[in-house]
Write a structure and sequence with these properties.
Structural class: mainly alpha
Number of domains: 1
CATH topology: Arc Repressor Mutant, subunit A
CATH class: Mainly Alpha
Radius of gyration: 14 Å
Number of strands: 2
Order of helices and strands: HEHHEHH
Helix content: 40-55%
Oligomer: single chain
CATH superfamily: Winged helix-like DNA-binding domain superfamily/Winged helix DNA-binding domain
Strand content: under 5%
CATH architecture: Orthogonal Bundle
Mean pLDDT: 93
Low-confidence stretches: none
Number of helices: 5
Largest sheet: 2 strands, parallel
């Protein structure tokens, strides 16, 4: 069954929550869009199954409008790759490499080594 949501019910609140999580990712670490979605949690009024299908995309949408001070470059896809293209992808890779993140010959980051694990509360 397709979800009726193309974006979170409260877009601005969701974006703020995404950005707060992303601000916690330390230099030299990365997180995936789906990981950020799970850390943000299911927005009110959204079924968990629908959120599992849409959450990573919603995080991606939030990252497009990222304000200054949010380390956008630290969010990558679940394959360990940069999802952007062109000069934006080059900038993201350069910023991550400056933080010590290493890419393999296929343009992937080793998530076992570089994926951020949020400390337990």
């Amino acid at each position: 069954m397709a979800s009726r949501f193309i974006s979170p019910p409260n877009v601005k609140e969701y974006q703020l929550n995404v950005w707060e999580v992303v601000k916690q990712i330390p230099p030299g670490k990365v997180a995936t869009y789906g990981q950020i979605a799970m850390l943000v949690g299911v927005p009110g009024g959204v079924m968990p199954d629908n959120y599992r299908a849409l959450g990573a995309r919603w995080v991606g949408q939030a990252m497009v409008g990222c304000p200054v001070g949010v380390p956008w470059q630290r969010v990558i896809n679940a394959q360990g790759k940069i999802s952007l293209s062109g000069s934006s992808a080059e900038t993201q890779r350069q910023l991550l490499e400056e933080e010590g993140v290493i890419f393999d010959a296929h343009g992937r980051v080793d998530l076992k080594k570089y994926q951020w694990q949020k400390p337990a509360a």
